[in-house]
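Title: Prediction job returns without error message
Component: structure pipeline
Severity: low
Priority: P3
Assignee: unassigned

Description:
Job completed but the reporter wants confirmation the result is attached to the right record. Sequence as submitted:
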Amino acid sequence: MADSLDCITEEDFQLLAGATPGTVEAWRKRGKGPAWLRLGTRVLYPRKQVAKYLDGIVKERSNEAKGALL
């Protein structure tokens, strides 16, 4: 079902995030993490929303740190 809606399951998101079920639930309650939807008792994460969330948390090195590696 999740695939037909272009979503990933809550369990798949937990694996992707390396987070426990309790942590992912806490993120939802606090408004953290990607947008999600509930269908019946299932929580699904639209793939586009997961990608958007991941893009927003990407960390980039500063120029000073890049120069230190040379």
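Comment from assignee: result matches the submitted record. The longest helix spans residues 21-30.
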